[in-house]
Amino acid sequence: MMVNAEVKQGAVNNHTRISKVNTQDGSCILERLPNDESRCALLANLFCSEGKPGKVGLIDGAWTCLISLAIMLIFKLYGAIFDKILAEVLQVSCKKRIGKDDFIASIRKTLQAHYKDKSVALGGTFLLKESKAKQHIMPEFSKVPLNSDEDVENWLRFYDMSAPLIAVGTLVSHDPGLDLRVQHFHSFSHHGEGGHYHNDTQPDIAEYLGYFALGEFIYRLDKPSETHPIGRD
């Protein structure tokens, strides 16, 4: 599910998409939900905002200089933007991946390295302009227990999906003991593909444009009494 909805004075403008596996041939089916459908199964990581415009801090450059260096440059140019200015929007534009980490993990680990055990949360959207992406879709619920990451991966259906892909989701640099999924982005396209984002698969041509805003509060709903680390990627 790629949640993208506006609620204003009780009226819903729903642009949320869902993707599912075609049981006939295993292909991806992408659908847009109607305004009267707001249910969600299992879990969701949602970013909510008032939708107001904010000042943009721009990062623009080749990914060969690493996202970490680019974000640290923002710290210097904007006076530790993540510490002081909650209304800012961070624009990240980069191309050509040279490391193993995906786009979101690169941002998250940079924040983690800088802020240590302090929690910095971002929510927003990014566009994968070039490169295919490894993404998964959940099939029907498993009839047997999934007791390991290997079990989960064997159950999921993986696809190599084509750009452009539009992703929405959240990330948090450090879990403050709330049993959070530290990053979770789903993407959709206008050519019938969508799923859970893992990484681009053509790093030499990968190009991203992202817009992220800072979270002021984290709300953890229905935290389970027992937890596990399985299937967190």
From TrEMBL:
Boundaries of every DUF1907 domain copy: 3-221
Chief place where the protein resides: nucleus
This protein's GO CC annotations: nucleus
SUPFAM superfamilies per the UniProt record, alphabetical: AF0104/ALDC/Ptd012-like (SSF117856)
CDD domains the record matches: DUF1907 (cd17298)
InterPro entries linked: C11orf54_DUF1907
Coiled-coil annotated residue ranges, if any: none
UniProt KW keywords: Hydrolase, Metal-binding, Nucleus, Zinc
Molecular function per GO: hydrolase activity, acting on ester bonds; zinc ion binding
Entry's localization field: Nucleus
Quaternary structure note: Monomer.
PANTHER family tied to this protein: ESTER HYDROLASE C11ORF54 (PTHR13204:SF1), PTD012 PROTEIN (PTHR13204)
Protein name listed in UniProt: DUF1907 domain-containing protein
